[in-house]
Amino acid sequence: MNSAAQFRDDAKRLTHDLRHRELIQSALKKYEVARDAKKARYQDWESARVEASDIKWDAVNHLDAHLAEFARNAEAHGTKVHWASTGGQAREIILGIVREKNARSIIKSKVMTGEEIHLNEALEKADMSVVESDLGEYIVQLRHEAPYHFVFPAMHLTRGEISDLFERELGSAPTNDAGELTMIARRALRKKYITADIGISGANFAIAETGMVSITENEGNARLTCALPKVHIALMGIEKLLPKLEDLALFLPMLATAGAGQVLTGYNTMYGGPRQPGEADGPEEFHVVLLDNHRTRLLADAEQRDALQCIRCGACLNVCPIYKNVGGHTYGTTYQGPIGAVITPHLRGLQDWKHLSFASSLCGACTSACPVKIDLHHHLLQSRRNARGQKPLWWEKIAFKLFAVLANSPALWALAKPMARFGQIFHPLVKATRLDPAYVWTQSRELPKVAPQTFKEYWKGRNP
User: Fold this and answer.
1) CA gap 372, 309 in Å, rounded
2) pLDDT tens, position by position, 190-230
3) Looking at residue 49, what is its pLDDT?
4) Who contacts 69 (Cβ-Cβ below 8 Å, separation ≥6)?
5) Residue 136: closest CA among 185, 184, 103, 99
6) Cβ pair 55, 307 in contact under 8 A
7) At residue 440, what are phi and psi to the nearest 5 degrees?
8) Which DSSP category does 445 fall into?
C-alpha cells in the first residue's frame, strides 16, 4: 500500500474512533488554555512573532555564511563537525564513530532528525543497544511506535495503557498515578545513563556566533544523556542555526509558549564542546553532525523557503482540525500536521507525499499559530498546484479541459444549470456508492443542493 492509500485508510479508521478523538482533542484544548495564558504575558506577542520571523529569515537566507561561522567556532572549542548531505551519510558517520569507540550501549535523547533518517533501526541492525531517555519517546519505543507529536510523543495514550505497558515490559506493579509511572521509567533509565558508551542528542538551536548547541527539555534527561557518556553526538538539521547568542532570549520563551504553554521550558542547556581542562563533567569527545537531507532543495524554492524557519514547536499541529481528528501516526512521516505537509514533499518526494497537502481545511489556523509566521496554508495550496502541474492525472486533465469549455461558454453554462437540477433528483439512488461521481465527498458529507433559482434568474424576474 502506498503512502496516500495508507493515509486514507488510517484517517478513515481513526476519525470513526470517538475515544481516540476525544482523548486528543481534550489534551489540545488544555494546551490552548495554557498557551493563551502565557501569550497574554507578552507585552506584544505579534511583535515578538515578527521579530522571530525576521531573525530566522535572515538565518535561512544567509545559511551558507552562518554554517561556516558555526563550524569554525565549534571546532575552535574542540568539537568535531561532520557534514552529511543525505540521511544515509549521517547514519554512516554516526555508525563510524560508534564502531571507532567499540561502543555497544547508546542512550539517546529526543532527536527528530534521528527519526527522519531512521537512526535507531540502523544502530540496532548493527547489534547496538539504543534506549530513548525522553519519557514520551521511551514509552513509544517500548510500544515499537513512532512519536505521535513533536512535543508530546505519547499523547495518544492513557495512564492505564502506559501502566499496562510498564507492567508487561518492565515488570512494574499496576498504577494510575502519573508520578509513580514517571518513577518507574526513571528507575529503568538511570542504569542506562551510567553504562552508556555514547549519548546521542538533537538540537533545538545552534548559535553561529559561538559554535554552541542549545537543547531545551522539561525532564533533565538530555543533560544526563549529553554529560555522562564519554562521547556525545549531536545530530541537527542545518536550518536550526540562529546568528547570535542573544537571539535565544526571544526564541527560548517563544518555543516554550507556543510548544507547551509554558513561560520557559524547565531545562535550557548550551553545549560548546568536549570537557575542557579543569571542568568536572562532560564528554571526552563532542561530535556535531550537520544534516542536509534535501533541506537545500527546499532552500532553493524561493516560494516555500520560509518553511525552513520552523522551530519544531508543534503549534500548528495543536490547532489543526485535521490533526485533531486523524492523529499523528496517520501522516506516516516524521513531521506531521501542516508543517509536515509542507516540508515532507521536499524531503521525501512530491509525488509520493502530495496527498498531505490535501489533508487540510485551509482554515489558516496553522499560519496564525506559527510563532515564526510561516505562511503554511498558502504553501499547502502551492504544493497542490505544484503536484498537479508536475504530474497531473489523465482524468483530471480531461475533466478540467471539459470544465474550461463549459465555464467559458454562456450557452453551455445556461444549459448545464437545469440539467444539474434534474440530475440531483436521482442522486439519492447512487449516493455514497462507487457509481456516485461525488463518492469521496458523500461518504461522510451531504452534497450541496443545486439552487432552484440562480441570482441571474431571480434578478431577471424581479426586473423584467
Assistant:
1) 7
2) 989 999 999 999 999 999 999 999 999 999 999 999 999 99
3) 98
4) 208, 209, 211
5) 185
6) no
7) -60, -40
8) S
pLDDT tens-digit map of 328-387: 999 999 999 999 999 999 999 999 999 999 999 999 999 999 999 999 999 999 999 999
More confident site: 24 or 435: 24
Nearest to 198 by CA among 283, 82, 288, 75: 283
**Whether 304 contacts 298, CB under 8 Å:** yes
Per-residue b or e along 101-119, where b marks 16 or more CB atoms closer than 10 Å to that residue's CB: eebeebbbbbbbbbbbbeb
DSSP states along 304-363 = TGGGGG-----HHHHH-HHHHHH-SGGG-SSS-HHHHHHHHHHHH-HHHHTHHHHS----
Q: Which residue's C-alpha cell is 548559535?
A: 207
Instruction: Estimate the crossing angle of helix 159-170 against helix 178-195, to 10 degrees.
Output: 40
Three-state SS at 204: coil
- Length in residues, the chain: 464
Strand-strand pairing, 205-207 and 212-217: antiparallel
Q: What structural domains and CATH numbers belong to the chain?
A: 1-41+313-342+349-391 (no CATH), 43-293 (3.40.50.10420), 424-462 (no CATH)
The pTM of the full predicted model, rounded to 2 decimals, is 0.89
Beta strand extents in 190-266 (DSSP E only): 198-201, 205-207, 212-217, 231-237, 241-242
CA dist., res. 191 & res. 185, Å (int): 11
Residues 274, 238: contact at Cβ < 8 Å? no
Residue type, 396: E
Tens digits of residue pLDDT in 376-388: 999 999 999 999 8
Q: What is the pLDDT of residue 435?
A: 81
